[in-house]
Specification:
Elements: H1 2-26, H2 43-57, H3 75-79, H4 89-109, H5 125-129
């Protein structure tokens, strides 16, 4: 009986190890539609960056992100939530702005090679927007 218990315990442990290993391989692409920010970004970092964008433009998430179409069957559509993977014109414009600030920071303020250029924030959305959805030309 003790031999069977050891065998079951060993099989359970091996199964758990295999599942954990498989989970790390499938998490390589955690987000469905990141085109500018790194795929290995943590949820905390992504939320922090999106929060900074929201504050700099004084907008909420639905400024760039849209709800799925009503005729689409998905959990997001049923719950009337935003589907962050969907694209629209405003989101594409935001990506252009993100690329612009990343390039400026990388070319002029990239002094610490440990920090990814995408995470530099010397020049940020707030530099031009200053709490407005669209920058004010002065």
């Amino acid at each position: 009986m003790a031999h069977n218990q050891k065998t079951i315990t060993l099989i359970t442990l091996v199964s758990l190890a295999v599942m954990a290993t498989a989970a790390t391989f499938t998490n390589g692409k955690k987000y469905k539609n990141l085109k500018v920010l790194p795929q290995d970004i943590t949820e905390w970092k992504l939320d922090s960056i999106m929060g900074a964008y929201s504050k700099a433009l004084n907008v909420s998430c639905d400024f760039c992100h849209v709800a799925p179409k009503k005729d689409t069957f998905s959990i997001s559509a049923v719950n009337n939530q935003l589907d962050f993977s969907l694209d629209n014109e405003m989101k594409e414009n935001a990506r252009r702005m993100m690329r612009m600030t990343i390039e400026i920071n990388k070319n002029y303020f990239y002094f610490d090679s440990i920090v990814k250029p995408e995470y530099l924030h010397v020049v940020s959305c707030n530099t031009c927007h200053r709490g407005n959805p669209f920058p004010i030309n002065e």
